[in-house]
Amino acid sequence: MTSALGSAPTGRDDRRARPTPTRAHRSRWARAAGTGWLYVLPALVMYAVFVLRPLVLTLQYSLYDWNGIGVARWVGLDNYLTVFTDSDLLKIIGNAIVLIVFFSFIPVALGLLVASMVRRITTGAFGTVVRTILFLPQVIPLVAAGIAWSWLLSSNGLVNQALRAVGLGGVARAWLGDFDTALPAVGVIGAWVLLGLCTILLVTGMSKIDPALYEAARLDGAGPVREFLAVTLPSLRQEIGVCLTVTIIAALASFDIVYISTSGGPGLQTTVPGLEIYRLAFSQRQVGLASALAVVLMLLVLACVLPIQRLSRGEKP
Amino acid sequence: MAELLTKFPRRRTVLLASLLAVGMTATACSAPGEDRSSTQKSDAAVKTELGTDPITLEMYAETGFPLAKALADEFSKQHSNVKFNIREDQFTVIVENAPRVMASDNSPDIIRLPTMVDLVKDDLLKNLDPYFTAYGWDKFPASQLMQLRVGDNTRGTGSLYGMGLGYSVTGVFYNKKLATQIGMTQPPATVAEFEELLAKAKTGGVQPIMQFNKNTAGINFPHQALQNQFGDPTQVADWIFQKPGATFDTPAALKATQTIQKWAQAGYFTKDANALDYAGMVGEFQKGNGLFMFNGDWESANLDKSMPGNVGFFLFPTESPGGKHVAMSAPNTFGVSAKAKNPDAAAYFLNWVHTNAKAREISVTVGGSSPGGPSDLPVPSAAPNTVLAETLKASQQLGAENGAVDFTANATGGIFAAAITPEMQKLIAGQQTPEGYVKAVQAEYQKELSR
Predict the structure, then answer these.
(1) Model pTM?
(2) Considering CB atoms only, which of B32, B421, B431 is closest to A179?
(3) Which domain holds residue B348?
(4) CA terminus-to-terminus distance, chain A
(5) Matching CATH number, A87-312, of 1.10.260.40, 3.40.30.10, 3.40.50.12370, 1.10.3720.10
């Protein structure tokens, strides 16, 4: 890139020498490329300073025992060994994997269902209202969603009031404070937040499907279910891929909802890697271990997301 | 993002990899962190005069703790050349930020401190010994400043590194109306009497204890209150101050844990305690939804306002009749940053807080806590028939009985979040045994000390 830039003749030379078309073409290309790099330079600098540098530093910190202030001690891969052997940390990673069911699979499955139902009413004022309502949870800050849901799920909250009203008072409990229900309850909050996003993406995808395909399917005698399986689902492969990618990242890197609704409790029942990284780094001041867990989390995200990317694009995994 | 991952052309991958490699070599040469172990001289000359030059003191204080600002305002009123620039954060945020803020070039002069040992180890806190001598703080009761001393990586002895903006005391607040309802005519004199009241409340349909246990373990309050009574409180203090050989795995701690388990099983805590946070607890107590609440005098002024005449306070009772009261009591610790630009003025302010009559009055009326200071200075009185007057009296009684201990939650930087809170949540939900609880807390303690 730089060599092309370096060999580019100046504008004045250009005019005097009356270059051959090929040379002119090449120099124009070089100039355009050079200008192009100039245009992306600010973004590149920001990317290097705020993404690459922290990434590199995290990798470096993960090899040290460091409290964030004093002198760090080189410990090699010890922090990674701790991440993979400490039963608490393994449980925390396991919690994040359980959350994938709630943050990804449920919103995508429900999203498909809802999208097929509202597909026919996407036009007109009513369609706009439906889309807005579905998308609303995505607009609400996660912290606000967490607070609102912790009220709903509290022992005297709306959920329990409703249960008592229909004679199910025996089931009522502090959903977020109970060892058995805390993690699923957090999952429900995540599912609520992400359902709208998935539905909107899927509805948009469905609107691009050629109506002729449905017509053909119907002529072949397909019912709504067959129509869905044979036409809708395959056509939405890319959209489903995007939904899964975004929601799996949201599940594995979750923080806000958990921090607000349960703070990781009771016990370690709802502690997720994001929360633990924050606690290790800033309250327990184990920057090295926190960084190692962060690197492991990053690899876990890539390990989940890359195969989905390949599958959704029709390549072999 | 999604597209980046798979459709990344090979050329750019190479570019990215080489950028990463350059970054790695640039940073990997040196270990992170800096050696700040240049020991401060503790005998450096200090000024006890404020002078007349304009000074701006940078203060880093706790949100929801209006005392610091009230004192600063009064100080500026009395000393017109001194202005304060106050930054406020939630206490948990200060805990997380303090080391980095104090290591930065904009280090505050006066800062609300969490645990001190690490800060002293990293040489971020100013040694206040010269001021101790210059201002004659030896006239303060020695026990008042004991928790603020650090030496050889343990607390309790050594050099002075902080002062209190008020000295808090903890105990049990009770709802007077509910107390009458269950036939409680006076505060319990023994733990057994206290347990009788709990049982009476339960059978009378009154929630016995309103205590939070979400985010941080509020049930550690009653736990330590029991632990203080079931054994030698110096054992507890030694453990908090990290004296060599100290352990949490003691008969007293075990008995306290068994008692908490018994109370949980009997339904003395609310069923949703693990989902109840501090603000929720105070709110429920104010609404009259609980007989007792374990808390500290920082809530006195607030409770006097929200339930006037209907709230009382007592120190947690002793195990046997006539025994010595022991209670968690801690200074609202403020220290002077090692990089402070005006350390002399900061120390002058801390001395003024303890000795100026108006400042002492503000400590009581705004902070709700004893102002500390020399024992020959009178303690300002609070309005009669308030819970503030009761907590102030309790604080003096505790001082006279020499029964103040620090909080077990302050033993190490991570013990509360990493062990006490999750294990206590498990204990009251029946997911942990008392034996398992004391062992788990001790294991985390040892893990942190071995670092």
Answers:
(1) 0.83
(2) B431
(3) 55-167+331-393
(4) 33
(5) 1.10.3720.10
